[in-house]
């Protein structure tokens, strides 16, 4: 206790979110006490609508690079992409050990294998209740419930005090696999005195309690009973092993065989089987190829694609583009998922497609959330009884909603911090304040390129997407400075040339006249010729079409 | 009755949807009896996500053009874009009279004025209960309720029988303006015997009854009471005149002045005032410029932008980009709207932005739908008691949901028709069947161009958006066929050149080598040189970056 007091006066604990607060996903938070840094999670996020052509987005970890000697390790809460997805990219620069529970590590190892990083990366599987020492920190893994098995909350012990980070969680008193969230341990730690609680805000706008995952199992029983004579497809999230377990349980009850389709689904199921996180009755799981040996009413196909992703298995099976299976009249398709915000339209599209094919589609009531609603959040706050509240995981409106909950529980407004990525929150018994900023940002990954697509490229893509491009090529004679070929205009994404020969030809003449006028006046400066081309052609095209294609003059010297 | 029998044997009535069934919006349906055609509605739809750069989408009316001598007029149900928006475009080819109720016509006339079509277009305002004769048809306008004033259902009397088309509707027993839906007239017509009912399916998946628009007024009273000391902004749909009326009523009750912001909002309000569809207490409506003369607690600003549109007034006021007003701490913003499917993310974005600015944001409970839920649909079916059911207005899943309702009310499956755009449904007392197809399609409008952006251009835009473009220019000597300049590579939207000089230079050398090899072999055919360039550069770039930019070789001859 004495040491704690002294140290907190000296420097205190720094909580530094490096991502996750300006967007859904990309969760990564550094905790620093003097010369020790630990990093909780290392997630990716998916590109926003205006990030054209981008595959995924990872956090800028410049701060960790600059302090690489202090970084002790990654401590991972659970195996979802928004918590582990950036690891293969970040590990290239920040090669420190990874600590995670069993299934979480299994999924991480799939990624490391894919990126050829297994040998280079130290890993340690941690059990619930177990602690690891990392420099000045001790981190304890606490059992929680979530939409993936083996999710953990973290109690982070530092000389300045304890921080509890819930990760993504819900309270499930009757989980499908393993134990309920370890509320007793939350209470014990709360009794010790907790400096700060960083709690999942995803469902903080929703009143009440999220139902148990087990309720979905009952729904499956009912739905299978109602559709006894049809082939059944269930679309769900690949990582929701408990959901898959329940589908298999119900299938077994009704004497059906189960096949699993979609690469990510197969991968995670393999890992779950290997790690014994799922319990499959003998002779229930069959290969998709063998399904043809069974009548429709003995088949269940669990598939990816519940978000309407056009390349996922469900979409391909609905559009006759799957090499083995086509969904059609008489089939039943259960969506065991909700659309993630932004995916509503693509989910509706595939539902319409399936209905049009004659399938029976069930897209309500076969899903529960994996995140805590308001009453669960209140429960955790009450058990932990923190001095400071730092809502995490969610958009600003969700963080704000949790802040309101914290306030309603008696935490003073001054002790609630809605942080931005890059904020340095210094916390001690005496006070907490945002005491600085570190560099943060989103790095775009496109194909093999990490960070080589910046704002200029994105703006160009947006411009190209909007109205296409007009390229004006011309050749100037090196000696005389005269135009010896061109200007010629080539367009793409503007108008289809055959439909608009006249427009293009008149545009060409307009540019030609303007260029000749320049050259006649003795203007041969390439910059001026290009500017003239852009201005004249831009004006002409806007007047004629009210469009602004990108205009790209190219001068060759011969 | 005799005539009817004879005629229905001869040819029957044709119902031909020319749009509106494959997408939300673009509602337009032709009704043909021998040499008479009438067209119900003429709407636009908004571009799908993959229609890059497209402003709006209008129906292909080739069938009407081919039968222009038979077309008697447009009969419009109400003044929403998805029912009137294509008129200014379609009228250029199909210049026939327009029939609509008062406010509907007022909004149409705004459009015609904008497109300079007022003088050329015959128009007739029709009252509820009134009928118009159009060739072999008589069309009666029946009062309904919807989220816009003056919405009408149509009873279409033909020698083959009666078709009732509800338009978009709900049942509101206590409407804000004017009368409740004329259920008595629906019943009377039902008694006569109705051949087919074409009923709004938008909310056919929702059980129960849509609440009265008046309930929103009560919500406003409560919210204004709770936020007595702040400036209040209300964002809603420009066309919902009743909603604006209720906001004004509540503002007046609380001694507040009202200003209206956003071009479409101002336009429709002006029209509604002119046509006396709205009742504004004296000295309540003030100019936005004058608002500064009143304290915050006496201000209400009604604004567009409830869908998070980045250029609308709300967004500009939230982002300090509005020239007169900035929303900030202490302001209250009420969203009196629900996100239209596909807009969820942009709505959430602006909510987060407003919260971050310190505004209090209310985005639930201050809206009701304008469409009938299941019990209302059942009511209309029961009053009309049609022989055939033709669900309209909605995506496939909504049409299917209404079909299920119709079945549950005893209409045989064989008498329910879920049509596709272009289907020709022949209906008579004896039978109904899809007896043919007419050409239909979606015509893309981009700037001034109508239909000049086709699939090739869209595919190019998608390609450009995904990975950008690499342009390879070179000059060949006319006489010798030798390369006298280039190949040079210019890229846009691929990688920012300064970050990737080496990559581009190596790519250039690779192309150069390949071209020289061709030329050395005596290959000077431009097609072959271009193909070689595309292949070699494409392979190189894919290998190095896993991207596939558009590659455009341009050869100049000098």
Descriptors for this entry?
558 residues; 25 strands; globular; 23% strand; six-stranded mixed β-sheet; homodimer
Structural account:
Two copies of one chain form a homodimer. The first copy, chain A, has three domains: 2-208 and 370-443, 4-Layer Sandwich (Metallo-beta-lactamase, Chain A); 214-362, 3-Layer(aba) Sandwich (Rossmann fold), CATH 3.40.50; 455-557, Ubiquitin-like (UB roll) (Roll), CATH 3.10.20.580. In chain A, the strands form five sheets. An eight-stranded mixed β-sheet of chain A has the order 7-6-5-3-2-1-19-20. A six-stranded mixed β-sheet of chain A has the order 8-9-10-11-12-18, with helices on one face. The first copy, chain A, is globular and about 90 Å long. The longest helix of chain A has 20 residues, at 501-520. Chain A is built from 16 helices and 25 strands. Helices cover 32% and strands 23% of the residues of chain A. With 558 residues, chain A is α/β, with parallel strands linked by helices. Chains A, B: One of its GO terms (molecular function) is zinc ion binding. Chains A, B: The active site is at 200 (proton donor), 371 (proton acceptor). Chains A, B: Residues 25-220 form the Metallo-beta-lactamase domain. Chains A, B: Its EC number is 3.1.-.-. Chains A, B: Its cofactor is Ca(2+); Zn(2+).
């Amino acid at each position: 206790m004495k040491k704690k007091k002294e140290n907190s006066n000296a420097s205190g604990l720094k909580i530094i979110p490096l991502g996750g607060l300006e967007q859904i996903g990309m969760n990564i938070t550094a905790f620093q006490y003097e010369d020790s840094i630990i990093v909780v999670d290392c997630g990716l996020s998916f590109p926003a609508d205006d990030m054209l052509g981008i595959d995924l987005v990872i956090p800028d970890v410049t701060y960790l690079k600059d302090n690489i000697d202090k970084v002790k390790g990654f401590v991972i809460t659970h195996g979802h992409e928004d918590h582990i997805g950036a690891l293969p990219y970040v590990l290239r620069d920040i090669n420190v050990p990874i600590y995670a529970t069993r299934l979480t590590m299994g999924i991480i190892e799939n990624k490391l294998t894919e990126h050829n990083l297994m040998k280079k990366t130290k890993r340690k599987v941690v059990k619930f209740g177990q602690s690891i020492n990392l420099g000045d920190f001790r981190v304890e893994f606490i059992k929680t419930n979530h939409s993936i098995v083996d999710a953990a909350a973290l109690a982070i012990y530092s000389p300045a005090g304890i921080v509890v980070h819930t990760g993504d969680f819900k309270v499930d008193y009757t989980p499908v696999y393993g134990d309920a969230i370890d509320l007793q341990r939350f209470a014990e730690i709360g009794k010790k005195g907790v400096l700060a609680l960083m709690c999942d805000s995803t469902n903080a706008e929703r009143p009440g309690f999220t139902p148990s995952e087990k309720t979905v199992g009952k729904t499956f029983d009912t739905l299978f009973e109602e559709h006894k004579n049809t082939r059944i497809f269930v679309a769900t999230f690949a990582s929701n092993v408990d959901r898959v377990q329940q589908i298999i349980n119900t299938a077994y009850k009704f004497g059906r065989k189960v096949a699993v389709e979609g690469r990510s689904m197969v991968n995670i199921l393999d890992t779950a089987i290997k790690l014994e996180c799922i319990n499959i009755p003998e002779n229930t799981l069959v290969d998709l190829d063998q399904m043809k040996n069974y009548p429709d009413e003995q088949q269940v196909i669990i598939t990816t694609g519940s978000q309407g992703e056009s390349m996922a298995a469900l979409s391909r099976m609905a559009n006759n583009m799957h090499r083995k299976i086509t969904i059609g009249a008489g089939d039943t398709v259960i969506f065991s998922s909700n659309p993630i915000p932004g995916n509503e339209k693509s989910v509706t599209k595939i539902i319409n497609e399936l209905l049009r094919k004659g399938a029976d589609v069930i897209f309500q009531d076969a899903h529960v959330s994996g995140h805590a609603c308001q009453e669960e959040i209140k429960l955790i706050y009450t058990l932990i009884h923190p001095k400071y509240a730092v809502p995490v995981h969610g958009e600003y409106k969700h963080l704000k909603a949790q802040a309101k909950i914290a306030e309603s529980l008696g935490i003073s407004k001054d002790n609630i911090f809605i942080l931005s990525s890059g904020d340095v929150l210094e916390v001690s018994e005496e006070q907490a304040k945002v005491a600085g900023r570190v560099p943060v940002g989103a790095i775009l990954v496109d194909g093999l390129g990490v960070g080589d697509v910046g704002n200029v490229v994105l703006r160009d893509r947006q411009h190209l997407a909007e109205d296409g491009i007009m390229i004006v090529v011309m050749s100037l004679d090196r000696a005389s400075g005269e135009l010896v070929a061109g200007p010629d205009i080539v367009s793409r994404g503007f108008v289809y040339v055959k439909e608009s020969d006249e427009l293009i030809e008149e545009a060409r003449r307009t540019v030609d006249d303007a260029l000749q006028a320049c050259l006649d006046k003795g203007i041969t400066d390439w910059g001026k010729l290009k500017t003239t081309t852009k201005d004249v052609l831009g004006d002409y095209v806007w007047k004629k079409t009210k469009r602004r294609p990108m205009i790209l003059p190219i001068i060759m010297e011969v």
